Amino acid sequence: MPTVYLTSPPDAAAEIAETLLEERLAACVNRLPSESIYRWDGEIQREAEAILLAKTTDEAYDDLVSRVQDVHPHEVPCIERFDEDNVLESFATWRAENVD
Amino acid sequence: MPTVYLTSPPDAAAEIAETLLEERLAACVNRLPSESIYRWDGEIQREAEAILLAKTTDEAYDDLVSRVQDVHPHEVPCIERFDEDNVLESFATWRAENVD
Amino acid sequence: MPTVYLTSPPDAAAEIAETLLEERLAACVNRLPSESIYRWDGEIQREAEAILLAKTTDEAYDDLVSRVQDVHPHEVPCIERFDEDNVLESFATWRAENVD
């Protein structure tokens, strides 16, 4: 099952997480504070960013990605998928029951 | 080698990490503060959670999972395994030496 | 494409991230605060650590690892590679354009 790694400006992160939960695209989202450094238009940028780790299912993944693109303030958001190599079965069952 | 992704109430996280170290089920545990949103009993819940990233070995993984279930306050804890695709050899050696 | 998972003493983390950006070994680095517990010389150690998540390319990975070893204050730093299972195409393109 996928964990989707997203980054977002801190003030947009809660809304993204709420949207994914309200629309049953993720069973849970963990939101972490971070400091990011990256290149944009050839310049190095330094700013606070939230990292969101959204737990979803294979079936919901594509819809989750397109919904994030709808609500994300960035033109080119970081959206990456990491599949776990094992998971506690009861957690996997709960997760599948809470994602459409 | 596995990194085990766990979430826990903040006040239980240190004890889980200490148990894994004391019992040599992990060589190290990184503990991060996060805000979580998830569905439980049909309601959306929002609360602080700790994320624990435990570095262990293939051989110790199953024991680590069952030990976390023993000490974790949740009925259905998030316990996921992510295997790295490469690791600095000296770190892998240190890790194997510190896990039984 | 790889995400490189690094840990570092908090006061060395910004310099490691800046080096990877300046030398175009990573397109971005997310830096997170954490508490770590680990075994060193047989004793359990507890201290604050930064986690760095560096987004790079297959081609730049080996150079990134050796450069981190150059600048990292630890003898045996945690350097692990996690390859994503999927990524938003525009983000992958941006990333490749910003890593040499």
Automatic annotation (TrEMBL), chains A, B, C:
Coiled coil: none annotated. Belongs to the CutA family. PANTHER family: DIVALENT CATION TOLERANCE CUTA-RELATED (PTHR23419), FI09726P (PTHR23419:SF8). This is Divalent cation tolerance protein. Pfam families: CutA1 (PF03091). Keywords: Cytoplasm. It comes from the Archaea. GO terms for biological process: response to metal ion. GO terms for molecular function: copper ion binding.
